[in-house]
Design brief:
Elements lengths: L7 E5 L3 E6 L15 H9 L5 E2 L8 E7 L2 H13 L3 E9 L6 E10 L4 E5 L7 E15 L2 E10 L6 H8 L17 H4 L6 E9 L6 E5 L9
Parallel strand pairs: 4-10
Antiparallel strand pairs: 1-2, 2-4, 3-4, 5-9, 5-10, 6-7, 6-8, 8-9, 10-11
């Protein structure tokens, strides 16, 4: 099934815009000149400046907030750093998870390979990665038990959910890079990692009003 790369606008005012990014769309441009959210927003807004506050991996879908002005970008970035910008994700994890858990690891990224691994806290360059996981429901995929987990990020590391889930033995379905099933045909049958940014909350950068947005699972992940 070919998916549209057009973002959905969820909310917009003069200071910011909240969009639901489709899987397959880059958050920002890279050397390949592939379609990306920043360029799309430049065309939509009719201006060059786009304040990208946070990112989603190319094949992760869901909610993002983007600033329209530099002051909004600075305040939203401060909210992200202070933990006031709250992000929840939904992910189909391979396995049967029965109870909520807090996952804590230290991660190290190889920039050249664009790969992240779990390392000792004493490893040079290692960064702490924390998230909380709550099981929501179960399903089956190619005769494999899956758990739909809600994950709340407490830190914002590259590939964090995918790496931590794999390290715990419950990798994200469809992940081709991390986890013990990444090369198995049944896992590859899903065309992208089953990961969706489902909830976003933050204080408005000007009014201070707490804004909350939710996004349901897209059709390709709604098992």
């Amino acid at each position: 099934m070919k998916l549209s790369l057009k973002p959905e606008i969820i909310f917009e005012d003069q200071h910011l815009i909240v969009v639901s990014k489709p899987a397959g769309l880059l958050s920002q441009g890279e050397e390949t000149d592939a379609p990306n959210l920043v360029d799309w927003l430049r065309g939509y807004l009719g201006r060059h400046y786009v304040g990208l506050v946070h990112r989603l991996d190319r094949n992760t879908s869901g909610l993002m907030v983007v600033a329209k002005r530099t002051k909004s970008a600075a305040r939203l970035t401060a909210s992200l750093q202070e933990g006031a910008l709250v992000r929840h994700y939904l992910a189909w994890l391979v396995g049967d998870l029965k109870a909520p858990a807090a996952w804590k690891h230290h991660l190290l990224k190889d920039e050249k390979k664009n790969e992240v691994r779990v390392v000792s806290a004493k490893t040079g360059g290692a960064k702490p990665a924390h998230l909380s996981m709550t099981p929501r429901r179960r399903a089956s995929w190619k005769n494999r038990t899956l758990t739909l987990a809600e994950l709340k990020l407490e830190t914002g590391r590259s590939h964090q959910i995918r790496v931590q889930a794999a390290a715990e033995g419950f990798p994200v379905l469809g992940d081709r890079k991390y986890g013990q099933y990444c090369r198995e045909a049944w896992n590859l049958a899903l065309e992208r990692p089953a990961l969706h940014s489902s909830f976003l909350s933050f204080p408005h950068p000007m009014s201070g009003e707490v804004m909350k947005f939710e996004s349901p699972l897209p059709p390709d992940l709604d098992f």
